[in-house]
Design brief:
five-stranded antiparallel sheet; Beta-Lactamase; 2 domains; alpha+beta
Length: about 350
Amino acid sequence: MQLSTHTPSAAVDTAERILDTLNSSIMCLDEKRQITYINSAGEALFESSAASLVGRQFASLLSALEPSSILDKLRLESIDFTEHEAVITLVNGKAITANYSIYRFDSHSHDGEILLEIRQLERQAQFAQDELKQQQQLATQQLARGLAHEINNPLGGIRGAAQLLQRALDRPEWTEYTEVIISEVDRLQSLTSNMLGPGSRMQRKPVNILEVLEHIRRIILAAEPGRIVIKRDYDPSIPELNADRDMLIQAFLNIVRNAVQAIDSEGCITFRTRVDFRYTIGQITHPLVLRVDISDTGHGIPRDLGETIFLPMITDKADGSGLGLPIAQEIISRHGGTIHLHSSPSGTTFSTYLPLEQS
């Protein structure tokens, strides 16, 4: 960021720290519309580091196929301008809706340098949605756990009575019925245990997320030889997480199994890892978060289910329990993270976000 040469370096550092706390993407552009400064939110928006963005033409970050009005406004002589609810398509094809403002960086300067601010509307809505989703999931989980406790208590008595009856019966053909009772009680107890969720305390230690995903990859390929192809798009520079390895394996395994079940015959699942900057989960904005995308080429999730797929007993599968994704969401929530989904008839992506500053 270019401040006056008379500005003390401490003041520059303070100004940059303040700009990095903002959720708006702030950029300084020179007269050639090259980036001379970008804050952390801008890095997150364009999914690149400041080091790789500074010096680039701002236009190179946008799609050439779907030009945005923002480029036309940057060419105007009278620069001060604000546009609301503009659609901006990035070079990677991602379209965002945002309010943006363009200001002359210094009203006394004639070198053409400007300040560009982009405020994503989707992110503001996502903050509120995340908070509401967390409250709904907490209430639903408490209800499911209470119901599971009420069901689980008499099951032990039913199983014990069936075992006593089985010993007392002198006709072997009758034991078939007691075996059915015992088998169904065991199935219900397994179901209620899953509804109660992971109750053990987390054992946090440094965890390599790529090792976790590779472990899951081996499990799936062994279970589905030839039917499922798993592609990997890893960022090898991601630091270790301070997390419970076994719980993370359970969470991601549940997500991947859901992806496998969404593929009717043969298909592909992609594991992708990235680092996002200035990401808000609930009411907390984290400087760095790990993002794990698990994408499948399945039939997608019905529109009427949407985010309710994370609630217990909600499923689009005839033989599904509706507990795998809620358990995954609970495990990730206990790690301070969240899971979002993006689904269409051509496939679904589950994006898991985990704070990295806990590492």
